[in-house]
Every structure is written in structure tokens, then in C-alpha cells.
Amino acid sequence: MSDFYQSGVITTLHQLGKPSLERLETELYGFSKTRPVALALPALYSEFEGPAMPGIVQELAKVKYLNEVVLVLDKASEKDFQRVREFMSPISTDVRIIHNDGRRITEIYETFARNGFNVGERGKGRSAWLAYGYVLARGKSDVIALHDCDIVTYSRELLARLCYPVVNPNLNYVFCKGYYSRVSSKMNGRVTRLLVTPLVRVLQQLIGPHGFLAFLDSFRYPLAGEFCMITDLARVNRIPWDWGLEVGSLAEVYRNYSPRRVCQVDIADNYEHKHQILSADDADKGLMKMTVDICKSIFRTLASEGVVFSDGLFKSLLVSYLRQAEDTIMKYEADAAINGLKFDRHEEAMAVEAFTRAIAMATQVFMDNPMTTPLIPNWNRVSTAIPDIFEMLKMAVDEDNK
Amino acid sequence: MTDFLSLILEPLQEVFLKFKVFLPNLLAMLVIMASGVVLAKIIKIILVKSLTAIDFDSWSDRMGFTKLMRKGDLWAKPSAILGAIVFWLLIIVTLMIGLSALKIPTIDNLVEQFFSYMPRVFSAAMILIIGYVLAGFISRGVLIAAVNSGYHYAKLLAEAIRTLLTVLILAMVMEQLQIAPSIVLAAFSIIFGGIVVALSISFGVGGIDAAKRMIERENKESRAAETGDDIEHI
Amino acid sequence: MPNVVTLRAEVHDQLEKIGSADIVVGIPSFNNARTIGHVVRAVQAGLAKYFPAHKAVIVNSDGGSSDGTMEVVRNAAVEDFNAILLHHRVEPISKIAFPYSGIPGKGSAFRSIFEIAQILDAKACVVVDSDLRSITPEWIELLVTPVLNGGFDYVAPLYHRHKFDGTITNSIVYPLTRTLYGKRVRQPIGGDFGFSGKLAQFYLTKDVWQSDVARFGIDIWMTTTAIANGFKVAQSFLGAKIHDAKDPGTDLSNMLYQVVSATFDLMENYTDVWMPVRDSEPVTTFGFEYTVGLEHVNVNTARMVNLFREGLNNLHEIWLDILGAGDFKEVERLGALSDGEFNFPLSLWTRVIYDYAIAFHQKKLPAEHLIKSLTPLYVGKTASFILAAEHMEAAEAEAEIEKLCMEFENHKNYLVTRWK
To answer: Could you tell me if residue B232 is inside a domain?
Structure first.
């Protein structure tokens, strides 16, 4: 059971009591008439053979307040695409599937490339960005919600709570991020717990109070992949196409809007998603890359706000981070102890060491070339340079979905 | 000098001769293995295709086999897993046949023993599968019936029955495979007998309070049921 | 000519002697000696009073009674036709009583009646229960006239019932049948029906006599088959239905299983018929409706709510699988409500029934386990209705049921898109 404490600069919407899903959905249904909602789902084909997707489709079939569902399908053959269409058929809302590997969409990507736009590598960032483009192209929705397709404990309550703050016209929020506790028999969410939170706090110590850091620190789960925003944001924001996607998106929101119009909402009592199983090797490499990308994203944002990064700062950063992270481990250990959760001190310490190495690597990369930016250009810029791009994208997707 | 040479050459000749006799067998084995592997691959592909055609995957989902596999962290499709199992079984059989082509007596013996054991493995597997499905079906039936008659400890009862049935099935499987039969028999009798005795004791002496409470709760509910409903549901 | 092997030689002889008839009244029975006499006399009086010029036959299709039911039927006769205000000459009405063959069950009994109707080339037929205490001669008129004179093929009954009675019909079968097939037949599993000879012959062409339909699903089967195959359907208000108290041993979950599985099975057969239907229309209603003051009926809602909560505790894995995470959480919230606030929302109930229909179609669980797991949810819904309708008049309670039906109709799209 949570409390109602408001921490940080953004609004926190807790789960208080036992709110009724019925009431929430009825209100959403009413609001959505004047503020239509689109749901964007970046997905890999393999997720359709996994344990989460059937449950997600079953729940979405009961959702009546969505205007459209845009699924971006990556790593899928033509047959896979047809199978996915069949799979999504129980959903009565208008479903459009963007077939990334299909020839029409591939052509669209090439259009970007030959007009000088680097839209990044295959990944969730690029898929999400293209989904935004399609929603903008259709011009039928005012709100875009986004979540992953590997959530095993998915319920329509998650979606309803995620959409509500932005869709409700009386609440005036432009961006809403989901948060949840990732606790099973042990505490998960290591990257958030042991990297992001200590890093941000340490940076605040070293740099002094800074609006962006305070903003970032307010989020209870900054790496959550679930958020909801007004379509205007999709036009203006530049999102990173690497692992810095979540943090980078928050940075863009901070740049373009006031924190008073941003909130986070408790979307689930228990949340579990099933990652793709990586080999131990890959896992390490993947984790390292994630860490490096997240750090780069934070450094870049701060630098763009006028913070000066020097060698000395980075050296102090590493030392302070290590200390802060070790203190943090002790705090989590106590929390785990009182609640009877498994806690492997050694494993956590090893993770911190790995993160330290990753931060060092990130600082190196950043110092070497601070201008490299994995940010996808925003849609305003793209549509100015290629005036018919929205039409072309719409045609491509509509043809694929015939 | 020639004696010495012949001393060296003779054993070599013997070995060479033996090898010449052995060579065709070796070649036979290699051919059998190669064709066996190809055949196994073909059969696996046909099997997986036919399983997909009869919608084996959703049947497996309904029967609960998929859930079992997922618990064991196997995330491939059930038809693919079955295909893989059959494939490797065929490879083993091919290996056995290939080895027997070498015509080495000790190996022949081993192969014979292996093949005579196969039927038992097959029947044990059948017992396991059918037993698993049956135990699930019966325990679910008990659960639903108990819940609908208002029994508070329905879940406990259903799980107890499922455990008992599982113990029974495992004992039967072990007996089929002839793994330490006397130990299994003794262990099974002890476990089953023990459960029965424990239940009797608990109701007679030890758990008299708990049992009394259970019975009283049942009585209270049945008394409440008697002041029951006069409505006609149909 | 479809097979008539089910009728014995003696019956055939009797039928030959009778030759043909305009009206056939069928009464299936099993150990109903106490009550069947009254039923037969009421039928005789009805036929004599309202259809004196028509040739009629009463058929008792018996399940092997040991209490002399068939004897009672053969001997039953109206003593004094004056009492029922008859002043013209009355033709003797033929009676046939025999044991039916086939799987034990009401369906097999009906089959024999349909066959006799076909052999006698009857224009109108009626079937009535053998334990009716409230049957009057007027019932015959109300069930036969729409067929003979109104051109209807099927007449369903409409009883005056206590607002708490017939909850399986009110919360499942009526809303579902109405939404699926588009006709507002208020009591599709009434038990007493009128139908045309044409429809009887149609029934015989269906090969269902070895299935559960023959055992317990005949009532809903008759109604659904008539509607789904485009026959003209009407309903007649018959008054109160009072019959012998049902055997208290009849377990609720069994009753639910029989009725709901028959309904779901029919959905499989008539998919092409119900999928495109949207909205529903009223059916022509005959008879003079009245309402009577409400007697108090004992009902233990606390026990019902407890049963629901127990079901929630023990069956949550099954319910989670069928309903999905969102609706299951809603059901969990219901479990946490106190007895006073307990209220099962109509939209949630609609989705529950649709989810169960879909799960039945996808064979997620063995049918019996699946539907019996619905019992605690049904009991919860019933308790909620009773608590809400406690101080309502009959008309208000009926309005509640109408609201539920509209929920079903408005959400039919969900059922259609998820049915694969």
C-alpha cells in the first residue's frame, strides 16, 4: 500500500485504496471522444511467440477508448507479418501494423537516409519514432501512449492508468511516465537502483543543484518503457535511438515543457516482463552498452544546459559514484532484509563495479567526441525537408495493411 | 635378418589383415550413421509439419504441457520441442544400429540390452504423460466440485489429491524403468501409508482441535444452508 | 420418410386406428402419477372447449415410470364438462401412453411426440410438463391458436414469476439468446411450448438424439432452432407456473452446466446465424398479462456472497486464465467488498459471460470443469441482483434485467471479434 507523499518537482499519482477500473475506463471513454488516444507498440516478431503477447491481445480486445493501435513489427518476414495480423484480429480497435522489414517501409527508411537524415539503427527508439510519425500522418489522435510487448503481468488497468492523466482535460498534463515496483522474490531493476539513481545524486553533489538533475531524480522509475504524451510532443521531441532512449526522452520533455505539466503514475501492483534470453556474454555486453548510452545521454543533456565537464569532474565522479553506490547497496539490503527478499550482496557489488567501468568508458567516449549524438531528428524538421513524407508513410502502411 | 624383419612385419600384417576385415564394417557404420542423420532430420521436419497441421501446440497449451515446459524455462514451441526429442531419439537409435554393424561382440551385447530396455522407456513415458494429464483433470474436478459445495479448504484438498496421484504415477514409472524396484516399493508404501496414518492420527488425536474446527465450520455452513434459499434458479 | 424405429408396434397400431389428427398434445413423464391426472384433465378440457371441431390426440411419452403414471393417463377423464362451461357435444379425445425409447431424458420423450405428430400429420402441437399444478384449459388455447390461426410456428411460454425466480434465465440465457439471435423471447427454457407440425418435422431432421440435447438440453434447443432457422416465433402469457418442488438434491452447478453448455453448444452450430445480428426485436405476445402481489421469498444472500468469495479464493487461477488480468482484478475487488456494499456491475457480468463463451469455443478447459467454475460468479451476480431488487416492484426488477440485456447487446462486438 503506498502513501500519498509528493516528492520531487513532478506530480506523482499513487495508487490509493482500491480504485475501480470500471469507473476509470468509463471516464476515459468519455474523454477520448474529444481527445482521441493512439497506442503505439514497438514489437519484435519473437514476442508474438512468447508468453506475454496473448495476454496483451486478450486485454486490448476489451479496451474501448482507443482510437487506433499502431504496432511496429521488427525482425519479421512476410509470413510472420501475416501471422501477426491474424494474431491481432481479436482487437476491435483499428490496428495498423508497420512492417519494418517489408519493402515499402524499407523504402521509407531509405528516403530518410538519402535526404540526409540519420534515423538510427534498428531498435525500439527508431520503431517508436516511426510510430509517432504515422500517428501524426493520420492526424486522428491527440494523445499517444506507448508500452512494451513483453509485459507478462499486463492488465488493461495499466493502460488505463497510464492514459488517464494526459487524456483527462481537467488535469492538464502533457507527459506521463509509468512507474512500478519490480519486486518478485528479490529486487530487480538493477540499472535503475544501482546506476541511475546514485549517478544522478552524485552529479547533483558535484555540479550543484540543477533543474534537469532534480527533474530526473523525481522519477521513481526513470527507465520505465511505459509513457503517454500529447502528439505535439511527438512532433517536437528528438528521441535517442540507442539505449539512452528513456532518459533521453525525459531530457527532451524537460527541455520543451515545464515540469508542472509532467507527472508519473503508479501503473501496476506487480510488473514483470520477459526479456529476450541473452547469453551471459551478450548480457554483459548489452548491459555495458546500456549503461554507456544512458551516461552519455545524461552528460550530453547537462552539457547542452551549460554544465562544464572536465577531466577532474569525471575523476571525482567515478570516485563519488562508487561510494554512493555502495551506500545505496546497504540501504537496499536493509529493505530486502525486513521484507524477506533475497539479496545477493556480492552480485550487487559486482554490478556496481561493472557500472563504474561503464561510466569510465562513457566519460572517455564523451570526452573524445562530445558532438556525436544518437538523436533522431524531430518530425517537424523531417516534414519540412521532405514535404510529402507523411503522405508517403501513410500510403506505405495502409497498403501493407490491406 | 629376414627373421627380424618378419618379426616386425608379421604383427603389422596381422593388424593390417584384421583392419581389412574390419574396414567394411567401419564403412557400413559410417554409412548407416550418415543416412540415419539425414533420415532423422527428414522425419523431424515431417513430424513438426504434421503436428502444426493438427494444432498440437494449442492442444498442448490446453492440457498444461506448455506450462510445464515454461516452468522448466523451455520457451520454444511444443511441436518444436517434440520434434527435437524425436530427432535425438532417432540419432541414438541410429548410433546403436551403426555400432552393431561393427560386429564387435561386447558392443553387440550393449546394443541388445539397449533395445530391450527401449519398450520400458516408452511405456514409462506413456504412463508419465497420461498420468500427468489425468492427475490434473481429477484434481481440477475435485477443486471445482468442492468449491461449489461451499467447502472452505477446497484448494488444499485438490492439491493433496494431486500430490497423492503424482506420487502414485512416479512410483509406477520408476517400477516400469526398474530403477531400484524394491526401494521404490518400500518408499512408496511408506509415503502412502504414512499419509493415511497421519490423517487418521490427526483426526483421532493430534489435530483434534483443527479437525473439530473444520467440522464445526462445515456444520455451521450446512445449518446456514438449511435456512437456505427458496428461489428457483431455473 | 425419416426413421420411425423408435415407436413400438402397439403404438403404430393405435396410430393407424386414429389415422390423422389436427392437434397433438405431448406430455413427457417420469413417476408423475400424483400430478399427471390433473394435467391430462386440463388438456382435455382445453381441447374440448376451444377446439371442438378439431381432431386431437393426447400423447404421454413415459420414461419407464414405476408408479403407474401411464395408467393414470389412460384413466383420466373430465367428469363434468358443464363445470368448464361447455354446452356442445364433445368428441372423445384419443389418448396414447407408452414408454419412449432412446437415451433417458426429456429430449427422447419429445422425439417420440414429434414422430407421432408427423405420422398423424398434425397441424399444431403442444408439449406441457407433467407436474404442473397451475395448468388451466386456457393454456391449450394460448399455445395452439397462434399456430393454427396466427401462422406462427413456435409459441414460447411467458409465466408470471417471482422477481427472484429464474435467475439463470434472467442473467444468462435470456440476455444471451436475445443478443445472439435478435428475438426477445423472454423465457426460452420455459418447458411448455406450442409449435407447428412443420416445425416438428424440421426438428426430426436434426441429428441430435444421441447427444446431450436428448438428455437435458431439449428446451433451449427447441427455442434456438426455431429462431435460428427463421421460423415465426411468438410467446403467450400463461400465468403462474406452479409445479412440484424440484428435487432439492439437484445441484446448482449441475443445473448451470446443463443449461449453459447447451446454450454454448448451439452457438457453435449457428455461428453464421448469430454473428451478423445486431439489436433485437420484440416478439408478438398473446394473452392477458397481469401482476400479482409479491410474496416474500426466503433467500440467504450472505451465504451466496460467501460462496462467491470462496470461489475467488480457490479458483483464481482458472478465472484469471479465462477473464484476463483486468477483469479478474475487478472480480477481486468485488471479493473485498462488504456484504452491504456488494454489487456486481452489469458490464463486468456481460464480459464474464462472453469470456466464458469464448473459452468454451476455444476449448480452454474440459467443458464440465469450465462451466462449473462459473458457479461462484453466477451466485455472486444473483446475490447482487437480489440485494439491489429487494424493495423493487416487479416492473422495476424487470427494468434491471432490460438494462442487462442492453449491456449484452451493446458489447456484442467484443464477442464477435474475439470469436475465431
So the answer is: no
- Which of C286, C309, C324 is at the close of a domain? C286
Q: Please indicate, yes or no, whether residues C57 and C95 belong to a single structural domain of this protein.
A: yes
Number of folded domains that form chain A = 1
| Chain B residues within 8 A of C310 when measuring between CB atoms | 147, 150-152, 154
**CA distance linking residue A160 with residue A59, whole number of Å:** 11
Query: What residues pair up with C96 in beta bridges, in sequence order?
Result: C59
| Residue range of the domain that includes C414 | 301-418
Nearest to C189 among B224, B229, B234 (CB): B234
Instruction: Count CB-CB contacts under 10 A for residue B212.
Output: 11
Looking at the DSSP bridge assignments, the partners of residue A38 are A68, A144
C125: β partners = C24, C195
Which domain range does residue B185 map to? Answer: 120-226
Which residue, among A46, A49, A58, A272, would best test binding to B if mutated, counting the most B CBs under 10 Å from its CB? Answer: A49
| pLDDT (mean) for B145-159 | 88
Q: What is the pLDDT of residue C264?
A: 95
Q: What percent of chain A has pLDDT above 70?
A: 97
Query: What total number of domains does chain B contain?
Result: 2
Are B89 and B139 in a shared domain? no
Would residue C338 count as lying in a domain? yes
Domain co-membership, B140 together with B222:
yes
| Mean per-residue pLDDT of chain C | 89
Q: Which of A253-267, A300-314, A344-358, B109-123 has the lowest mean pLDDT?
A: B109-123
Residue C2 confidence (pLDDT) above 50: no
Domain termination residue (choose one: B76, B103, B130): B103
Q: Is residue C292 part of a domain?
A: no
Asked whether residue B77 falls in the same domain as residue B171, the answer is no
Burial A123-136 (b: 16+ CB within 10 A, else e): bbbbbbbbbbbbbb
Residue A129 has pLDDT above 90, yes or no: yes
Check whether C236 has a pLDDT greater than 70: yes
Q: How many CA atoms lie within 13 A of A1 on its CB side?
A: 4
Residue from C8, C26, C51 nearest C197 by CA:
C26
Residues in A whose CB is inside 8 Å of some CB of B read: 49-51, 277
Asked if residue C123 belongs to a domain, the reply is yes
Answer yes or no: do C307 and C254 share one domain.
no
Tell me if C302 sits within 8 A of B227, measured CB to CB.
Answer: no
Domain that holds residue A99: 11-400
Domain annotation covers residue B112: no
Task: Tell which of C234, C258, C286 closes a domain.
Answer: C286
pLDDT at C294 (0 to 100): 62
Q: How far is CA C37 from CA C25, C34, C41, C130, in A?
A: 14, 7, 6, 9
Please state the rounded mean pLDDT for residues C93-102.
Answer: 85
In a domain, B233, yes or no: no
ipTM metric = 0.84
How far is C1 from chain B, CA to nearest CA, in Å?
37
Model pLDDT for residues A189-200, shown as the tens digit of each residue: 888 899 999 999
A-B CB pairs within 8 A amount to 5
Q: Which of residues 66-85 of B touch A (CB under 8 A)?
A: 70, 75, 77
Set of chain A residues whose Cβ sits within 8 Å of the Cβ of B75? 50-51, 277
Tell which wins on pLDDT, A166 or A277.
Answer: A166
B115 lies in a domain? no
Q: Nearest residue of A to residue B78 by CA position? A: A49
- B99 and B124 share one domain: no
**What are C's interface residues with A at a Cβ cutoff of 8 A?**
324-327, 329-330, 333, 336, 345, 347-348, 351, 413-414, 417-418, 420
The answer to whether the CB of C44 falls within 8 A of the CB of C80 is no
Cβ pair B147:C375 closer than 8 A: yes
Q: Tell me, yes or no, whether C95 and C214 share the same domain.
A: yes
CATH of the domain at A392: 3.90.550.10
A199-234 burial, b if ≥16 CB within 10 A, otherwise e?
Answer: bbbbbeeebeebebbbbbbbbbbbbbbbbbbbbebb
